[in-house]
Design goal:
By secondary structure, this protein is α/β, with parallel strands linked by helices. Helix content is 30%, strand content 21%. It contains eleven helices and 16 strands. The chain has helices at 8-18, 25-28, 61-69, 94-101, 120-129, 153-172, 193-204, 281-284, 306-313, 326-334, 345-359, and strands spanning 2-5, 23-24, 50-53, 76-79, 145-149, 180-184, 212-214, 217-219, 224-227, 241-248, 253-258, 261-266, 273-275, 278-280, 289-296, 316-324. The chain has a five-stranded parallel sheet, sandwiched between helices. The chain has a five-stranded antiparallel sheet with strand order 12-11-10-9-13. α6 packs across α7. The chain is globular, with a radius of gyration of 22 Å. The two termini are 40 Å apart.
Length: 366
């Protein structure tokens, strides 16, 4: 049996949940970083009788095609994913088309295991997914879901910093850097990931003398950073989060710990790293965090979509805090008209299934 997922974080979660090794799809297919393409293909299939693929909503049609080509014809294939989350960054909607084609058996999970049944995260995630407003009222007692009103971006930004630095760590006993993640609808704007990263970095890990400034960012020991490109030589992948161990101006290098594995970067390579105190919701797919803070304001209007809000809320394992305007939340919940993706995949799968069934030997009735 082989296990894989599109991102390193998702593969790590698979390994933790199963106790088995899990790889990114690119590692599993043995990507060739120099020549391009994959060493595993229909002429050099994977050695397995069962292949399990997680977070499949993130897989575009090209990567799905490469994966299926490398899957042995006699192997069982189990695809796991949530089509209500954001679609893949690349072309197509492979998971949605496979499900919609009716060509493969589909099981819909209705019981949630990530949080308790009474979790307000789960209740509100279901409401958002159904096009209903989440319950934004202040809870009577302790809760795992809160809404903090902020009528303008300035107030929202200051409240987000206060929540991450003081209120959440004090109330829930969480580490402000490692356990609290701010997830934004977009990069730009006063409450976008870039601006909030600068403020959160200054509040949570102010740089001392041992630092380096490159590509518009400051990097210092203790900083939380994210890899934003796949690096197959270093075995670090887009979306992986790590923590800077040291910055050495003499050697022109810094070290980052990714899940306990130390990776060295030259100062000239730092264009692939960004601070990760705040990140976009798109970058968070395949990940989960103990606590999530999500700014939701009308400033984010171009990105206020139901699947974006749903994806952000479901990233929180133990705590979700929305900060912003009820009007903006309502806009996101109502907006299910994210850009439609035109694909022939579902139709081709249906036709293939029909041809397969019609060409099979008919059963003779006795």
């Amino acid at each position: 049996m082989l296990l894989c997922a599109p991102t390193g974080r998702a593969a790590k979660r698979m390994a933790e949940a199963t106790g088995m090794e899990a790889k990114t799809i690119h590692r599993l297919l043995e990507v060739d970083p120099i020549g391009g393409g994959f060493r595993r293909n229909d002429g050099n299939c994977l050695d397995c009788n069962v292949l399990v693929v997680d977070e499949a909503s993130m897989i575009d049609v090209l990567l799905m095609q490469a994966l299926l080509k490398a899957t042995p014809d006699d192997a069982a294939l189990l695809i796991v994913g949530d089509i209500d989350q954001l679609p893949s960054v690349g072309p197509g909607q492979a998971l949605a088309d496979i499900i919609g084609s009716g060509a493969a058996p589909v099981v819909h999970l209705t019981e949630v295991f990530r949080q308790a049944d009474a979790s307000r995260i789960i209740v509100n995630a279901h409401r958002i997914n159904q096009g209903l407003m989440p319950d934004l009222a202040a809870p009577a007692g302790d809760s795992d879901f809160y809404f903090i009103p902020a009528d303008d971006p300035e107030r929202a930004a200051s409240r987000i910093v206060e929540l991450a630095k003081t209120r959440i760590p004090k109330r829930f006993g969480l580490n402000p850097i490692r356990d609290v993640q701010v997830l934004c609808p977009m990069n730009r704007g006063r409450v976008g990931a870039r601006s909030l990263n600068i403020e959160l970095q200054a509040a949570l890990n102010p740089a001392g003398e041992r630092k380096v400034e490159r590509f518009g960012w400051t990097f210092a020991p203790g900083d939380k950073v994210m890899q934003i490109e796949n690096d197959y030589d270093k075995e670090v992948y887009n979306g992986d989060i790590g923590y800077i161990g040291d910055v050495d101006p003499e050697t022109g290098e810094l070290t980052v710990s990714f899940d306990g594995r130390t990776v060295t970067y030259g100062f000239g390579e730092l264009d692939v790293l960004v601070p990760a105190y705040a990140a976009t919701i798109h970058k968070s797919q395949g990940s989960e965090y103990p606590a999530v803070i999500i700014p939701v304001l009308t400033q984010h209007y171009p990105m206020l979509q139901r699947n974006l809000l749903y994806t952000g809320v479901t990233r929180g394992k133990g705590l979700v805090v929305l900060v912003g305007q009820k009007k903006a939340v309502a806009i996101a919940v109502r907006n299910a008209s994210s850009r439609r993706r035109w694909s022939k995949l579902a139709e081709w799968l249906r036709l293939g299934a029909l041809r397969s069934s019609s060409s099979s030997t008919p059963v003779r009735r006795v």
